[in-house]
Amino acid sequence: MSNPDLVQYIVEQASRACEVSAKKMFGDYCLYYNGKVIGLICDDYLYLKPLPQLQPLLHECDQRMQPPYDGAKPHYVISDVDDRDYVSLLVKTVAESIKNKKK
């Protein structure tokens, strides 16, 4: 289970990029942009979808992937949630990818 204060902090860090929100689901949280899931916050870690657009933007320490919960597909684990510009860039990249996928 994730700390609700940390979840709010991550949402605030990502809010520079676009309007995101978090919703509690199954004891942890989903991170949303325009009603679409762009990531998860599980056990106090930020997980983002494994999109190829993220790979060149990731810090070396964030290039590892693991499932956020048992049975899930692997996601990027973002460790530096204190770097607002970095988190915003990653979230914006995922959000734009989802937005462009619709077209």
Give an account of the 3D structure.
The protein is an alpha+beta fold. The protein has a single domain (4-102), classed as YgaC/TfoX-N like chaperone (Yope Regulator, Chain: A), CATH 3.30.1460.30. 29% of the residues lie in helices and 28% in strands. It has 2 helices and 6 strands; from the N terminus they run H-E-E-E-E-E-E-H. The chain has helices at residues 4-14, 84-102; strands spanning 20-25, 28-33, 36-42, 45-48, 65-66, 75-78. A hairpin with an 8-residue loop joins strand 5 (65-66) and strand 6. The protein is globular. The mean pLDDT is 89.
Total of domains: 1
Number of DSSP-assigned strands: 6
CATH topology: Yope Regulator, Chain: A
**What ranges have pLDDT less than 50 throughout 5 or more consecutive residues?**
none
Structural class: alpha+beta
- What's the helix-strand series? HEEEEEEH
- CATH evolutionary superfamily: YgaC/TfoX-N like chaperone
Overall pLDDT: 89
Main beta sheet: strand number and arrangement?
6 strands, antiparallel
Spell out the key features of this protein.
single chain; 103 residues; alpha+beta; Yope Regulator, Chain: A; 6-stranded antiparallel β-sheet; globular
